[in-house]
């Protein structure tokens, strides 16, 4: 990785942590998340529409639409769970759990649904991610 990427990586980490702190401190995390998604959609729409027009208005295959719907549903469930967790728990507990759950779920989907096989080093990394092994 080029060293020039490091500031962007640190900025992304800061923004992610700040966003989660805002969610925790808001009176209604789900409403805040809904507003953020709505604003993000509205702000990005002109750029997405322009790119779509510039590329000749390509259509999406049915599988892509299905994947988009599944992804949207998963994101909705994620925001509901995260909002509920922030209403009930401390940031210092919920944030690390939320951050560590996604990689484990991705591995489970890869192994169970996609038939991927894990290298032994990957297993060690996963176990370290869920903090079952001291690395």
Fold and architecture overview:
The chain is mostly helical. The protein is 79% helix and 0% strand. It has five helices and no strands. The chain has helices at 6-25, 29-54, 62-88, 91-113, 120-129. Helix 1 (6-25) packs across helix 2.
How would you summarize what this structure contains?
This protein has helices at 6-25, 29-54, 62-88, 91-113, 120-129.
Fraction in beta strands: under 5%
Helix content: over 70%
Low-pLDDT segments: none
- Report how far the terminal alpha carbons are from each other: 22 Å
Q: Pairing-aware structural class of the strands and helices?
A: mainly alpha
Biggest sheet layout = none
Number of strands: 0
What is the N-to-C order of secondary-structure elements (H for helix, E for strand)? Answer: HHHHH
Overall average residue pLDDT:
90
Query: How many helical elements?
Result: 5
Quaternary organisation of the protein chains: single chain
Strand and helix layout:
Elements: H1 6-25, H2 29-54, H3 62-88, H4 91-113, H5 120-129
Helix pairs in contact: 1-2
Pick out its properties.
135 residues; mainly alpha; 5 helices; 0% strand; globular
């Amino acid at each position: 990785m080029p060293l020039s990427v490091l500031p962007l990586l640190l900025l992304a980490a800061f923004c992610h942590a700040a966003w989660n702190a805002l969610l925790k401190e808001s009176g209604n995390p789900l409403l805040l998340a809904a507003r953020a998604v709505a604003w993000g959609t509205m702000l990005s729409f002109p750029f997405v529409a322009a790119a779509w027009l510039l590329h000749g208005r390509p259509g999406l295959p049915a599988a892509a639409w299905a994947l988009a719907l599944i992804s949207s549903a998963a994101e909705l469930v994620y925001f509901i769970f995260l909002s509920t967790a922030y209403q009930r728990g401390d940031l210092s507990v919920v944030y690390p759990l939320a951050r560590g759950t996604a990689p484990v779920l991705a591995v489970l989907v890869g192994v169970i649904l996609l038939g991927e096989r894990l290298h032994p080093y990957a297993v060690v990394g996963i176990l370290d991610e869920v903090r079952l092994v001291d690395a």
